[in-house]
Amino acid sequence: MKYDYLIVGAGLFGAVFAREMKRAGKKCLCIDKRKHLGGNVYTKEWQGIQVHKYGAHIFHTSDKNVWEYVNQFAEFNHYVNSPLAVYGEELYNLPFNMNTFSKMWGIRTPAQALEIIERQRSECAVAEPSNLEEQALSLVGRDVYEKLVKGYTEKQWGRDCKELPAFIIRRLPVRFTYDNNYFTDRYQGIPIGGYTAIVEKLLEGTPVRLGVDYREFVASTGAKVPGRGSVNCSGELESSDRGDSFEKVLYTGMIDEYFGYALGELQYRSLRFEEEVLPECDNFQGNAVVNYTERKVPYTRIIEHKHFEFGTGKGTVITREYPAEWKRGDEPYYPINDERNNALFAEYQKLAEQEQNVLFGGRLGQYRYYDMDKVIASALELAKAQI
């Protein structure tokens, strides 16, 4: 078969790109090393509960075009993200707002909260913060930092806040209203029936092969693909008349892996998920997301999936989320966009620009953290440029 595009990755970016290319009359084949569609937005049903297998995904955007686009493929409910935070025996609302401050200090008015925060900030303020701890103390003061920022952040990044660069939290949202809505975007919700159904609709009419690694696919099938970094320049694939052929490749995997880590490894943070089905418990924690901010608690949060869709049925499913150091073979979840890694990525970008007819997209191909709406917008932009 002759294809216009080989799309590597059946996540949100690859699926949106595939849909737009199909609409433009292009022939695509999509492959993914996982054995399911959807990438990290994959959801799987258990007794009517859509379980977010790779962590909580709440769709939110201020981009009306993106909102209208995604609503073609699902009906969204009116879920509002209002997480809670547990510190010892204390329970706080997030994001930091008047409910948080009222519980923490026993106060009621914005003026009282502002006075306490300003006093603590002035006591801790550093003219030029040199690390994350100094930055956070300068933004929110000691009480909020110690109880709700320090332990959680250290678990996320696997190191002490004094060892983390200040730029990680250039700002911390502080609201002097009684508003627990985590996001300020105009549009927000959860797709009824889960995210996997959206990806399935996006990929309708596009053949998909799952459980297939890109390098192995090319080497084992003799597929003819453009580009040098992935296979051909390493000498793994001889010239052949067998196999499918592709005019272009969209690669949504790790850009450093594509080039065989030739310039060194980019750094990522990984996650481990511990899922527990509780058939005899109908309501475990009363909220979809509860953060655990003490460092001695090994997980960062517990997700109770039924609350994303206001479930009231029998049984529940919870997931404990554990941050982890990334090493080759692990799933990379968060690029570490510090000075060292951004500089290395810039060098990989130079290599990418030399790859004829190979496109790089998504959080791994472009080495940046993307919310779902930004993934869709970026994929639409790339597709438009190709048509």
Helices and strands, with pairings:
Blueprint (H helix, E strand, L loop, with lengths): L1 E7 L3 H12 L4 E5 L10 E4 L2 E4 L6 E3 L2 H7 L13 E4 L2 E4 L4 H8 L4 H15 L7 H26 L29 E3 L5 H8 L5 E3 L3 H8 L23 E7 L3 H4 L9 E11 L10 E4 L8 E4 L11 E10 L8 E2 L3 H16 L3 E3 L1 H4 L6 H15 L1
Parallel strand pairs: 1-2, 1-10, 2-9, 6-12, 10-16
Antiparallel strand pairs: 3-4, 5-8, 6-7, 11-14, 11-15, 12-13, 13-14
Structure at a glance:
This protein is of the alpha/beta class and 387 residues long. It has helices at 12-23, 64-70, 98-105, 110-124, 132-157, 195-202, 214-221, 255-258, 339-354, 362-365, 372-386; strands at residues 2-8, 28-32, 43-46, 49-52, 59-61, 84-87, 90-93, 187-189, 208-210, 245-251, 268-278, 289-292, 301-304, 316-325, 334-335, 358-360.
